[in-house]
Structures are given as C-alpha cells and as structure tokens.
C-alpha cells in the first residue's frame, strides 16, 4: 500500500497503474461504490453494468466486504451483465448468471428482480427480440451510470470479438448473439474441460450500449493482458481490437491496471494522490 500508484493519459483516457491486482481490484470496487452514491444522490438509484471472468472476482469480494461492514448498500441498485454463454442454463455453474449469484447477487441486498443477465435459455427464434429488449430496458432505467469491463487477450470487451468491420460499423454494434473467438475459447478451456468443450456462442451487450454508459471502468491485471492493453491505449482505433474503440469516448474511460498489465506502456507518469488516499481509507 505504500507504493504510490502511477497515472498517465493515453488517447485522452485516464490510466492508473497500481502495484498489484488486489489493490487494483479494490480501487475498481471503490469507483463502483462512489458511482452508486453519486447516482443515488442524483436519481435515487444507480444502474451498473457488470462483468464476469476471473479478474472481477476480487472486485465483488471487495464490494461484499464493504456491504457487510455498512460501506455500501445495493437496495437502490439495478444491474445489467455484459454477457452470457448461449445456450446455457442459469443453474449451470459455468453460466455467468451462476457466477454473479455466487460472487455478488446472493451476498448483498440487491433485489433479485433488478439483477439482469442475458437469458441463455431463450429459444433461438427469440434471441434477437431478447437482445433488443435488453438494450431498451437499460435505456428505460435511465442508462448505465458505470460499466465495468475486463479485456480479453484478443482485446475483446464483453464478447465483442475482433472483426474486420469498419470502426463506424463496430461502434454501432448492438446487443446480439455472437460466435466466440478461438482465443476466448482457449481462455475458457479450464472452466469447460478443454477448448473444444467451450460453448461456441454467447450473448453480449453490444459496443454501442457499452459506450453509451456515463462512465466506463476497464480493469486488467497480469502480464498476459499487457499486449492488448498497450494496443488498445496506444494503437489506432480498430474493430480488430475492440477495446481500442473506447478511444471514441475517451473522456469517460478509466483504465485500472496492475504493474504487469501496464508493462507495455511508456510514461511520462505522475502520481495519483487522491486515489491513493482513498484506497488507504478503504483498506481499513
Ligand atoms: P478474465 O476475462 O477476467 O477472465 O481475464 C476478461 C475478459 O475476457 O473480458
């Protein structure tokens, strides 16, 4: 905790680099709590876009700890998850509905009917209708106050995988059913007992609704993410690396990295004093 974080801006986006993954996840959790409080003060409710995967597990652990000690309540919170395998049952332990139940929903005072996860059981003929409805529900709830994102090794956000679309086309992508990229399947192999066992398709929030969030926190930890992080921050905007599309809404994006995930970035760096104090406070 004594090592000060470093900060810089790339392509107009704020980047914070923290000494290790544990602290980075705590900082991301604290940004979520700050966003809940600010949205409650303005609109009496907060609408969060949530992510799954191994990286945010510690974010949710932090939120659950804060909830248990009175540091945050979810009674005025509505959540929308980024993605879900398709097809999959919500009671399958590998589903993202089950993940969210384990790591957050069952641990805090969030109303069950306010926790939205794309439904992996919907018949295929109704998928397009479900996806369009999901985007409408977010808008009807007033839009996302904060979208939490991870980044895949291939630069995906949600399950918006690399493609050869133009940037303009990619920026318009709505919530939809997609085919998973080989890198994504390789990374999910452990959960499914082999890459060829990974469910091949998924429902994902589109690029357009992700970028429409009022603020976006993208969290990456570990050296395997360094290349995608550096490309998204310092390379051109391209649909071949979906995280680079965050540059189009740079002013509302905060990258939270640990040192290994930031190892592909060059300075000049400065120290983030306010966040350092806040994280120290949150550690107690
Ligand atoms: P991970 O996934 O947290 O399991 O690395 C991140 C992502 O693919 O978005």
Short description:
The protein has nine helices and twelve strands.
Structural descriptors:
Rossmann fold, three-stranded antiparallel β-sheet, nine-stranded mixed β-sheet, binds 2-phosphoglycolic acid, alpha/beta, 284 residues, disordered C terminus, 12 strands
How would you describe what is shown here?
With 284 residues, the chain is α/β, with parallel strands linked by helices. The chain has one domain: 3-Layer(aba) Sandwich (Rossmann fold). The chain is built from 9 helices and 12 strands. The strands form 2 sheets. The protein has a 9-stranded mixed sheet, with helices on both faces. It has a 3-stranded antiparallel sheet with strand order 5-9-8. Strand 3, helix 2 and strand 4 form a beta-alpha-beta unit. Helix 1 crosses helix 2 and helix 1 crosses helix 9. The chain is globular and about 50 Å long. The N and C termini lie close together (12 Å). The relative contact order is 0.20. The C terminus is likely disordered. Bound molecules: 2-phosphoglycolic acid. The site of 2-phosphoglycolic acid has 6 residues, from loops.
Tally of individual domains: 1
Model regions low in confidence, pLDDT < 50 over at least 5 residues:
274-284
Average pLDDT score: 94
State the shape. Answer: globular
Number of helices: 9
Q: What letter string, H or E per element, gives the SSE order?
A: EEHEHEEHEHEHEHEHEHEEH
Strands ordered across the widest β-sheet: 6-4-3-7-10-11-2-1-12
Annotation, overall tally of beta strands:
12
Ligands, deduplicated:
2-phosphoglycolic acid
* CATH classification class: Alpha Beta
Q: Major sheet, described briefly?
A: 9 strands, mixed
Q: Whole-number radius of gyration?
A: 18 Å
- For the termini, the CA-CA separation is 12 Å
């Amino acid at each position: 905790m004594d090592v000060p974080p470093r900060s810089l801006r790339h392509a107009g986006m704020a980047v914070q680099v923290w000494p290790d993954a544990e602290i980075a996840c705590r900082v991301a959790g604290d940004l979520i709590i700050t966003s809940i409080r600010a949205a409650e003060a303005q609109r009496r409710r907060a609408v969060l876009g949530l992510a799954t995967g191994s990286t945010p597990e510690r974010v949710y652990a932090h939120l659950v700890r804060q909830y248990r000690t009175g540091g945050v309540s979810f009674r005025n919170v509505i959540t929308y998850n980024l993605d879900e395998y398709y097809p999959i049952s919500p009671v399958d332990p590998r589903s993202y509905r089950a993940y969210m139940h384990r790591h957050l929903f069952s641990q805090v005072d969030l109303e069950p009917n306010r926790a939205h996860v794309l439904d992996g059981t919907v018949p295929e003929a109704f998928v397009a209708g479900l996806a369009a409805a999901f985007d409408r529900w977010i808008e009807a709830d007033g839009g996302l106050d904060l979208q939490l994102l991870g980044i895949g090794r291939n630069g995906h956000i949600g399950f918006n995988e690399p493609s050869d679309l133009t940037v303009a086309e990619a920026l318009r992508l709505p919530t939809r059913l997609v085919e998973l990229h080989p890198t994504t399947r390789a990374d999910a192999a452990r959960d499914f007992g082999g890459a060829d066992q990974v469910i091949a398709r998924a429902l994902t929030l589109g690029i357009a609704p992700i970028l429409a969030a009022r603020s976006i926190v993208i969290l990456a930890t570990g050296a395997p993410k360094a290349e995608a992080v550096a490309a998204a921050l310092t390379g051109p905007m391209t649909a071949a690396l979906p995280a680079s599309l965050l540059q189009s809404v740079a002013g509302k994006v905060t990258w939270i990295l640990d040192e290994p995930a930031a190892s592909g970035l060059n300075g000049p760096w400065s120290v983030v004093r306010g966040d350092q104090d806040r994280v120290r406070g949150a550690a107690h």
